[in-house]
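ARCHIVE CARD
Drawer: 12
Card no.: 0347
Subject: one protein chain, sequence and derived structure
Cross-reference: see card 0346
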Amino acid sequence: METSHLNTEQIIIGLSWDPLDKPQIADRIFTLFGHNKETFDLDLSCYVYDGNNAFLDYVSGMPGEMIDKSGSIRHSGDDRDGAGPDDDEQIKIDFTGLPEDIANIVVVVEVASAHAFKDIFTPAARIVDVKASKLFFNETLKDENNGDTSACVLGRLERVSGSGDWTLHTIKNYLNHEHVEDWSEFLTQFLP
């Protein structure tokens, strides 16, 4: 596990991928039956915990879930096809506005369409300092070891005790999201 000291007030977690330009007839048939294979759809979310590893909040691109209770964690909204340049989905975190009881934030990427990472064109994630544009994390989410999986626990942001600083612990744990019944409970294994 790689660790980076963030030493910044705001970060953006960005997720990007390229669209499926020419769906096949089979893709359209699967989509008609409720299994979207016609477009690539990835989702970015984060789970918020206190110092005792109790689940506090959840932020995703879905309506009603785009802002945490403090207003300091904001999602850009759900992108369902990956079209367009740069990040397709983003979560912006303002560390200065987070309540003191927030100790850890775990970031997750899921393939929401009926695909695995091996099917997606150029899936990538980055974490960047908003003001300095310094990259803390910038990696592809596709390689020969994770191709058949549909979710990635990207990393954990941890508040440095007694300061306003935060640390990024890169996790990159791949799995199939169909096997996770309760993400908020499942992710506690990655907490200190």
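Annotation on reverse: The longest strand covers residues 102-111. The domain at 2-190 is CATH 2.60.60.30 (Lipoxygenase-1).
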